[in-house]
Amino acid sequence: MGFRIKAAGALALALIIGAGAAWAQGDVISQRKAAMKAIGDGNRAPAAMLRGEAPFNLSTVQAQLKVIEASATSALKLFPDNSKTGGDTAALPKIWETKADFDGKMRKFADDAKSAQVKITDEASFKQEFPALLKTCGGCHTDYRARRS
Fold first, then answer.
1. Theoretical Cys-Cys bridge with 54: which of 25, 48, 78, 139, CB 3.0 to 4.6 Å?
2. Residues 6+ away with beta carbon under 8 Å from 4
């Protein structure tokens, strides 16, 4: 299990690096997809810990909190008006219709991840704090992301 957790951390880091490469290429839809994928893929290891399928690992959790903070912060710049369509985006038009709300939710997600980096110090605090972060993540999906079939 320890290897899987470390591998998940390495995957998250690789995805962040991939997001940086996409950024350099200038394709904002690819950039935001990479940022969101880094969050989603990186959340797998902590979610397994919450379900008791993997042992708690503080360093893995802390690494993912940093990925969430960085990705949510970068996402604020990844939804310009000219990126509403194309690139197989799952972003709903509501993002641009209620941009202030969307940006506020992204800022809160980043801020909550930063705060959790201080609050999560052991398994008990992880089980207390991380589910709320996952709920915040899922809340944006409900409002702002099209369901994929």
1. 48
2. 45, 48, 54
